Each structure stands twice: as C-alpha cells, then as structure tokens.
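---------- Forwarded message ----------

FYI, see the DeoR/GlpR transcriptional regulator record below. Original note from H. follows.
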Amino acid sequence: MLKNDRLTFITDYLKKHQTAKVGFLSDQLSVTPETVRRDLEVLEESGEIKRVHGGAMLKQANITETNFEIRESINKNEKELIAEEACHFVKEGDFIAMDVSTTNTEIAIQLARQFSQLSVLTNSLVIATILGKNSNIDVYLPSGKLRNSELCVLGASCISYINQFHIDTFFMSVSGISLEKGLMDYGYGESEVKMAMYNNAINKFVVADHTKFESTAMLRVGDVHLVNGIITDPMISPAIVKKYEEKDIHIFHSSQ
C-alpha cells in the first residue's frame, strides 16, 4: 500500500475508533511496525493525531463530532463519483436498500436529484432524511436501537423489519475488500444489518472508494465473488482492476 493510502487508512480508522495500536495497524496495512511509526510521526506533525505509548489516538479537539460527521469529509470527491456511477444501476420504480455509510449518503443525494419514483430501505437516519425531502420517494426506516455515533438503527427488530422486503438492488458499504478474505467491516451490529439486506436483495453492489481495496477489517461480511460488482472511483489502480477482473469480479467506475 502506498504511503498516502496508509495515511488515509490510519486517519480514517482513528476518526472512527479514536485509538489504535502500532501492532494492529501493522497487521492491517501489511507493513512493519517501524513503517507505521514513521507514518504516525507524519500525521502527528500535521496536527491530526497524537502519538501515545504503543500507538496513537485522535486529538481530543476532533472527537466532538460524531464518527459519521468526521468520515463524511474524507474522500468526498471520490464518493460523489461513486454515487454518480451507482445511479446507472437504478431505474424508476426500483426498491433500493442502503446501509449506513458516507458513500451511501452521497448516493442518496444523487437518487433524490435524479429519480421521481423509488422506494428505499435504509437504517441510516441521514439517508432517510435526505430522501424524505423528495415526496416521490417512499422511505422505509426500521425500528431498533439508535447508534448515536453513526446515526443509524441496529438490533433484532431492525433485522426483522428488513426481512419483510424483496429488494431489487442493495448498495453495500464495506471497510475492506480482499480477494482472499472477502468483504469486511468493523461494526458487528452494522454487519448483521448488511447481511439482512444482502440476503433479501436480487442485485448486490459493493460501493467503496479505492482505499478500501486490499485492506482488511475485523469482521468478514461476505464473499467478494457473490456480488454483481464493485462500484469505486477512478483512482483505483489499473493493476487491482485487472487482478479482480481476472477472477470475474467486475469493477465499475466513471472515466473522470
């Protein structure tokens, strides 16, 4: 993984989890602990993080925002391009499902602009609010326990609600993609919701920016070979695209 991609991964992880150990980051990034320490030095000098014994933490001044609000500003242009591409796989009258993520939030913005008749199932309060402003889009929001940091609904009642529906297309966000380890994420509750949407959908597309490829996360949520394709941004490495296409995994992105 290139240095800039490592720095993005570390920053993204710390903004979501606040702390990280050098050993953990070394395993996730497949680099030596010494390389991780040098990366942490760079980030500390930029003022984004604070190094502590054995690892790093997010500076306290940055923790006042929710995890979701922080991640919204990361790779925003790439997420907008992903959203534009994702809309090519939607047609009027479709029933769409989207789990909570900043990438899916951008897709919701595009759906609200481009379509006049849709039904959307989501566990994200932010996505529901965006789409709810369009009176021609029916929004289905499950009940359940609110996870404040992500502004989403989780739990058994949420999953039970999702299982009632037949979904045309599911846009699934992930924290890591690997040919060997599959599709991965960090939150157990979110992973359960993803799988419920996945199991009830005809078409399944992963939506993830280029930094998620060949990265790993704590939980395996599915097999990368069982989705219709991965929608990403144009910064994806041609070598990675070739590697995945050779395994019959389709990569979609705009030419911008």
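H. also flagged this: The CA atoms of residues 12 and 236 lie 18 Å apart.
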